[in-house]
Amino acid sequence: MSDFFSLLAEEFPQVRSGLWVTLEATVLGALLALVLAFALGLMAGSRLLLARGVSRVVVEFFRGTSLYVQLFWLYYAMPPLTGYELTPLVCGVVAFGLNFGAYGAEVVRGAVNSVPRGQYEAAIALNLSPARRLWKVILPQAWVQMIPSFTNLLIQLLKATPLLWLISAADLMTVVQTLRDRTGETLTAYLTLLAAYFVLAYALTLLMNLLERTAKRRLGLEPGAKSLFKSRSATTATTGGAA
Amino acid sequence: MNGFDWEAAGDVLPLVLQGFKVTLLATVLGTLVAAVLGLAVAMAGRAPSRFVTVPVRVVMEFVRSTPLLVQLVGAAALFNTVEPLVIGIAVLGVHYAAYTSEVYRAGIDGVPKGQWEACRALSLPPRRAWQAVILPQAVRNVLPALGNYAISMFKETPFLAVIMVQEMVFEARKYGAEHFAYTEAFTLAGLVFLVASYPTSLLMRKLEKRLGH
Fold first, then answer.
1. Backbone dihedral region for residue B197 (phi beyond 0: left; psi -120 to 50: alpha; all else: beta)
2. Which of A128, A139, A186, A189 has a Cα-to-Cα distance from B205 of 20 to 30 A?
3. ipTM for the predicted complex
4. The model's pTM
């Protein structure tokens, strides 16, 4: 067992760069997904049939075709078809962004729909412009409801990043795999890897809980300090149809 | 090698469909494992002793928060004499049990308190109370959510290709590498996923509406 950890310490710069790739893919993928989720989710509530239709088709397409096929398609199938080649990390970010953006769109749609009708009516009665109505009245309330589901999606995105190993990006999994090959300590290597992902996931959960608390405070709700340490609930992951 | 080669697409389709059978088998058996194990975990989570409930919750939270791919590759490396498909089904089942157990927990919590009290009033032994009163009501509420997890498991089966289970993506990759036709192979694999999963999710949504969720 000590072999593995001494090699881990020796190769620390490599491990750190692997960790960095994993974090980069998670954060950039999540940002792209967030932008897409809002764009597609708000389009789904549009009055225009065309906007609703486009959103529906895009969401069903990216939810329906499996992340793994999307990632492989971007990496293996797109270059011969179009002549453009993306680096593995960019492939990952684009695939994660599109796939989780599609799931996130359902979260946004559901949360916006769940804001009481009266709030819309009050905003209209106050003669707010549509943009201000959305920005000042609807979104702050919907946002609080979106965060728990977004937390789940974020953790799922983090859990998808080891796929980068398959398209040869040097992420955390790739680095630890090479360390395992060099020491032959299978059990230690994978337990370390699992522990690392668990710590990352828990750190992200804490950050998202903090975000939820801030969002609730803006609405005048005062959640206790304990709410920061609550674990995420698995059941909310099922909202928005097929997970 | 530019453009979409329809001939190659025709060649790869039977292979992809052959892999699809394995994909489907893994999904069905994996769902079965997750459904049974999830229920066991949910019931263990309600045990009277904290020495049972706390470790169960911690382990499940750990399984839920760590990547399936690492679990899969790790299990395959540790038990390298076991058939890959068996490992794949077991790991998928355990991973999803961490999710289904939460669904069961909510389903069991959703059974009105009066039902428990009635069981006690009738002095039913705990075993009979679960079997005859609580579970039939809980499981009915839980079915749509289980279906959704089955669909999401279906879309995660390509992971199994990594440990050499010859499912759909494995076949697509093999053909792609041999004939340099990744475009056609992966496009078809994606379409098969879409064709299979979209109607299923529509069906699940209908079932959910009918059950009043």
1. alpha
2. A139
3. 0.87
4. 0.90
